[in-house]
Amino acid sequence: MKPVILDCDGAELAPDERRFFADHDPWGFILFERNCVDRAQVRGLCDALRDAVGRPDAPILIDEEGGRVTRLRPPVWAKRPPMAEFGALYKSDPEAAREALRLNSRLQADDLFEIGINVNCAPVLDVPQPGAHDVIGDRAFAADVETIAALGSAVMDGFRAGGVAPVIKHIPGHGRAMSDSHKELPVVAASADALRALDFEPFRLLKDAPMAMTGHVVFSAFDPDAPATTSSIVMETVIRGEIGYDGLVMTDALTMEALEGDLPERARRSLAAGCDVVLHCDGWGLMPFDKKAAVLDAVPDLSGDALRRAEAALAWVTPPEAFDRAEGEARLANLFPSALA
After folding, report:
1. CB neighbourhood size of 334 (10 A)
2. How many C-beta atoms surround the C-beta of residue 329 within 10 A?
3. pLDDT of 37 over the 70 cut
4. Are 10 and 34 in contact (CB under 8 A)?
5. Which residue among 252, 262, 282, 301 is the active-site one?
6. Of residues 9, 47, 144, 182, which has the active-site annotation?
7. What is the largest CA-CA distance in the chain?
8. Positive or negative CA dihedral for 181, 186, 190, 193?
9. Considering 59, 117, 213, 309, which has the largest number of Cβ atoms within 10 A of its Cβ?
10. In sequence order, what DSSP letters do the residues of 20-80 get, joined into one string?
11. Collapsed DSSP state (helix, strand, coil) of residue 278
């Protein structure tokens, strides 16, 4: 089993894809909008992916934050609000915001579990700062640690109750980035003390999350030469050390322009730095098998602490708790009407 998460081309698993996945045995998969047509189709695709690698619990991920980061589109699935709207409610009524977001996340988990998805790449724990690039923007709950930690915890509770594992992101923080790491490498020049007091703190408070996704961001105070994803200094000193995170760490997408080198080199550097698995996907286009194979061939099998963390991450979630969906939707509509628009 390779420490790699891969995407697939379309709504159905083609025979050549099935053979490729069976031969290379990636740890998991990630779905994009192109893979999600309706409930029965997604369920069939997830079943086919797991069958290809022979693991019924193989992780299948999706980015379903709400707002502008969503793969499950209306009218098949409900449109969910961006997390900043729950942060705004928290200012006036913290209890209502926490309960509304827990219900929102429980309903999301219900949607995901029904179609075979067991990992959601949320919540965003980044602390946005004035003047930073809006790639995070309203994906963040707020600009203060208390709100982020409280609402991030509510998201995790809702997911867990519904049988879905969360991925906190983008560890150790993307909120100060002045550029979009999809397109270029952001460099954050804030002091170590400033980063500890603000950016790192939500991740430290929610360090029991089963999985975390890195940010492709340079933190000059710790390592001026490499982004967090490929920096053993940031991984060991900050993520595993100061934050105290011992869950599974996955990279953000290797295809993002913030990283240097070809894709196999990016994968090797990420794993050498201390990431447990790499995310090798392209949400904007289809990737030839040879580019996927090059990364899979460049990395060792999943083993040691990385394997331990991978197994613990999948064991984190128990089967869904009993849930009356209609009652949950009614309660959410009463607390936060726009959540079900």
Report:
1. 11
2. 17
3. yes
4. yes
5. 252
6. 182
7. 54
8. positive
9. 117
10. HHHHH-EEEEEE-GGG-S-HHHHHHHHHHHHHHHT-TT--EEE---BTTB-SS-TTTSPPP
11. strand
Tokens of 337: 């009407």
Q: At what angle do helices 145-161 and 83-92 cross, to 10 degrees?
A: 120
Residue owning tokens 């100060």:
176
Residue 25 has which token pair?
A: 């045995």
- pTM, 2 dp: 0.95
**What percent of the chain stands above pLDDT 70?**
99
Long-range contacts of residues 219-222, Cβ cutoff 8 Å, at least 24 apart:
219/172, 219/188, 219/190, 219/195, 220/187, 220/188, 220/189, 221/189, 221/190, 221/191, 221/192, 221/195, 222/192, 222/195
What's residue 282's pLDDT? 82
- The sign of the torsion formed by the CA atoms of 91, 94, 96, 98 equals positive
- CB-CB contact of 332 with 324 (8 Å): no
* Known active-site residue 174: no
252 flagged as catalytic: yes
Can you tell me the distance from the alpha carbon of 161 to that of 164, in angstroms, rounded to the nearest whole number?
8
